[in-house]
């Protein structure tokens, strides 16, 4: 690939990178992948809780983006589009699991986040335990609840952006987030929420 | 304001997603309701906790994996989106090949492969006519299937629309031992006409078993002429109606050998 993208000292916007990709600049596409691979992978992992499947889904999301890039007209942010594809592919993956009689909980490697043997130095032991429990409880939420919580609290998307990603009404997003938090709050009561 | 009805509003409040007027109402309620205030505090801690969860790093070979998955897509693209100077001639060649194939020369004469003999002449004509080319006009309506002596598979002749049928005659000459199937409006009518033809050539007709099989005994030197004239006879020789009702197998047996 002879084409070379020059990433200036100023940060090139996603929109500009997309435009360069549409002009056939392969290096610009690589830059898009580098920039957003962590985001795509983490959303996929939060939704699937399986590292291998999350990697596959996130990579497939970029492949799909590459294939449909010519038709992207910038009606929404690149990240919203990426989220939409990752969530859809995660849906498909869960459907694939169900078709093969595989329970979602069987696939979870929920403690991967907390694989480190010691408590991170910047995290108090109680906080660490709380985060660990919270992560496990999120993993057990129904998929629609997990999706909205991840998009809102991990990816920091607005209700409107979440509605675009999930292709539903803003009101639906609002009620689903509230219900998801309520279910999570109830499930955390046994373990006790931190009192600070 | 009823605490049970503002569950989703409390959640939206901590996300800053309530419209101004509604937000003021909910805040006023929370300030005066210890239970809702406690719930808001718990929701805030949960949301903050979710946002602060450690993130996993994607595998180091992530980008390489994407590139690997893209290779088949790029190969397909390369095949579909070739430069115009290459693409246009290729398309012209493909179109030319299709035209040549469609206009390819076909075997002269209605030599058809059939799995079974048709039940009526109308069906025979329906089968053959789509295959007949304008140059085959003289044989339109006549069907011949190459016979196979070892398999007992006969020539099949139908109703001519007039004129000679050189292809049929040639085919019959090529394999004189094969029976010929002709059609007519009734067994009696066909027998009578086949018999007339046989008699003019010093032959005679016998009805064999099954009854739609005639055996024509002819001097050996007359066999080819008989078979040729059988095929040459105009349609009225065999049938007076458009849809003959019977098909008869004519077996020619040379005598005086």
Low-pLDDT stretches of chain A: none
Distance between the termini of chain A: 55 Å
Tell me the overall shape of chain A. globular
Radius of gyration of chain A: 19 Å
* Number of distinct helices of chain B: 10
Which strands sit side by side, in order, in the main sheet of chain B?
A: 1-4-3-2
Fourth-level CATH superfamily of the largest domain in chain A: RNA polymerase sigma factor, region 2, helix turn helix motif
CATH architectural label of the largest domain in chain A: Orthogonal Bundle
Describe the main β-sheet of chain B briefly: 4 strands, mixed
Mean pLDDT of chain A: 83
Alpha-carbon Rg of chain B, integer: 43 Å
How many β-strands of chain B, per DSSP?
Answer: 4
State the gist of this model.
The complex is a heterodimer of chains A (196) and B (257). Chain A has 9 helices and no strands.
Structure keywords:
heterodimer; A: mainly alpha; Rna Polymerase Sigma Factor, Chain: A; Arc Repressor Mutant, subunit A; 2 domains; 9 helices; globular; B: 257 residues; alpha+beta
What can you see in these coordinates?
- The complex is a heterodimer of chains A (196) and B (257).
- Chain A is an all-alpha fold.
- Chain A has two domains: 1-108, RNA polymerase sigma factor, region 2, helix turn helix motif (Rna Polymerase Sigma Factor, Chain: A), CATH 1.10.1740; 111-196, Arc Repressor Mutant, subunit A (Orthogonal Bundle), CATH 1.10.10.10.
- Chain A is built from nine helices and no strands.
- Chain A is globular, with a radius of gyration of 19 Å.
- Chain B has 257 residues and is of the alpha+beta class.
- Chain B folds into three domains: 3-51, no CATH class; 62-102; 121-255, no CATH class.
- Chain B has ten helices and four strands; from the N terminus they run H-H-H-H-H-H-H-E-H-E-E-H-H-E.
- In chain B, strands 1-4-3-2 form a four-stranded mixed beta sheet, with helices on one face.
- In chain B, strand 2 (204-207) and strand 3 (213-219) form a beta hairpin.
